[in-house]
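Re: beginner question about structure tokens

> Can someone show what the tokenized structure looks like for a real chain? I only ever see the sequence side.

Sure, here's an example I had lying around. Input first:
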Amino acid sequence: MFVFRPDSEGTAMRNISIDTLDSTPRPVVAIGNDYADGYLLRRHHHRRAQLLYGSTGVMKVSTEQGDWVVPPQQAVWIPPGLAHEVLMLGVSTRSLYIEPTAVPLSRDDCEVIGVSPLLRQLLIEAVEMPLAYDPQGRDGVLISLVLLEIEQARALPLHIPLPDEPRLLARCQGFLQCPDIHQSPLDWARDLFVSERSFSRLFREQTQMSFGQWRQQACVVLALSRLSAGESVTRIAMDLGYESHAAFSTMFRRLVGCAPSHYSSVQAAER
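And the corresponding structure tokens:
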């Protein structure tokens, strides 16, 4: 259960709804929240853009365009006005709510971004600032720096785009329930009663990715939640259809930039 609990000193913004602070005359409002494992923030939107960082646990962000899985100590960018829901799996967050006129990223959809050590410390420090911080003083400089760091952050391929075409959407949702790296475009084409060539063209039109790219990315994103829950890399690799731990790790490292064991070790350290 999520409980609003203002900081006892009245300065740091913790466990407070942005709805009560949205009119604050500052370009950025920073809030820290703690969520019970499995807590679901149902579909909603904010007037401000949001950078949502999870210092612990895993977040799954869903919009009409697809799903994003956010590993521990990474963040997701949520544009202003975008309807979304968030599943919190043991998460403590630090959020920046940014006025539309001050946003450092011109994205129309969500994006998972890598959080550098500097950006991580800035996010932690921002939550400790008073709500009505001095924009001309030290806190104002900190906010300017955090916006610059967000602008330069690296995007991570942790999005599973979903198509609009109903039959293809159903097939993609079935894959996400039972992923298998060996499923082929020919199998999907046969199920949809189209040629493989027509299927490949339709898939790219609907997702902006080839089927092979989507299949790999979906497997990586789905694996992240399991890694963060403490499951072994070998078990996950076998369940996804990889012939070996090494084959899965090579693919994972290529897409994410680090070995799957990194996320297991992060969660172990948190526990």
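Each token stands for a local structural state, so reading them left to right follows the chain. The chain has a mean pLDDT of 87.
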